[in-house]
Amino acid sequence: MATVTTFAGPRGRRHPGRRGACGGTGPGDAPATAPTPPQAEIDNPLDLIAGHQLLAEPAPPPAGRAHDDCACGHPMCVDGEGDRTASARVFLVERHSVASAGLRSVLATAPGLTVVGSTGDPLRAVAAVRRTAPDVILLGCGTDLEEDLAAVVALRGPDGAPGARVLLLRRAESTAEASRMLLAGAGGCFPLDLAGERIIGAVQLAAAGGSVFLPAPPPARIHAAAPARHLGEPPPQQAGLTGREREVLVKLGQGLSNAEIGRELALAEATVKKHLTQAMRKIGQPDRLRAALYAHRHGLAG
Fold it and tell me: How far apart (Å, rounded) are the C-alpha atoms in residues 165 and 162?
């Protein structure tokens, strides 16, 4: 059964206070007198392998203590005001445990990124991100793009993490696909075969509010509305069509046969054929199919 790993504690954008981010205390700290709040259960061993410890709610700091006295060695507890930059909280939604472990290993090398939870079950991810409130969600591939876009909408919905940036772990095959991702609320995408530093850079850019697509998607192929030879064809109002010829051409564009056109216009089938032959000559179309396409191009088919 898929597991969800969460980390209790304050948002990563705040320093954890005098109590170490790992839940321990620095040298000389007074023993905590208040009972330790309940902690979320670690049920994914990869959390421990990656070195991520459970964050407890910080105890009130003793008076007169400086919060940079913690010597636990956790990246969020390092000394020096300049080192305590805002940390981006990352949540992983990845079905494949090996891929999830690889992402954790890569992100662990970036001091400003903290993995706060993971799940292999997208159906459980919405509740999990609501509890952990991540800044960035990495969403692994589903069966198709439609499923992934639906997951993006759910993850950023009111029951999930509306303020989170979601990056899809797939390529955008075209600029059209990239546009669909943005419209669904995603912040971009990248495949898992990128170099580690590029993955880190993509997550950091998303955490800062940017959009990222790696590699850059190829532009969508644009098809001309009509071949160049159509540009010189006369429009219906300049082709010299009679009223009856125009009516026959309209019905042809609607997909009717000569017999059906005759019934619609109360004409003999031979008369329909005569009008159609004259209309095709005037508009420069050699057969019924091209004449019907002409009618569509020029808005005659309705």
Answer: 8
Ranges of H-type helices in the chain? 45-49, 97-107, 122-132, 145-155, 175-184, 196-207, 243-253, 258-265, 269-283, 288-297
Q: How many CB atoms lie within 10 A of CB 139?
A: 23
Q: Are strands 165-168 and 188-189 parallel, antiparallel or unpaired?
A: parallel
Which pLDDT tens digit goes with each residue over 57-88?
333 444 444 444 444 443 334 443 334 346 89
Residue with tokens 């002409």: 294
Q: CA end-to-end span of the chain, whole Å?
A: 56
Per residue in 231-268, pLDDT tens? 568 888 888 999 999 999 998 888 888 999 999 999 99
Using N-to-C axis directions, what is the helix angle for 288-297 and 269-283, rounded to 10°? 70
Percent share of the chain, pLDDT over 70: 67
CA 258 to CA 91: how far, in whole Å? 65
Query: Residue 222 carries which side chain, given as an amino acid letter?
Result: I
- CA torsion 222→223→228→233, rounded to 10°? -130
Task: Give the β-pairing of 88-93 and 113-119.
Answer: parallel
89 by DSSP, 3-state: which? strand
1 class by beta-carbon count within 10 Å (0-12 exposed, 13-18 middle, 19+ buried): exposed
Q: Of 165, 116, 156, which Cα lies nearest the Cα of 136?
A: 165
Judge whether 118 and 169 are in contact, CB under 8 Å: no
Query: How many Cα atoms sit within 13 Å of 270 on the Cβ side?
Result: 0
* Rounded distance between C-alpha atoms, residue 126 and residue 156, angstroms: 8
Report d(CA 35, CA 137) in Å as an integer.
33
What is the b/e burial string over 6-22, where b = at least 16 CB atoms within 10 angstroms of the residue's CB? bbbbeebeebbbbbbbb
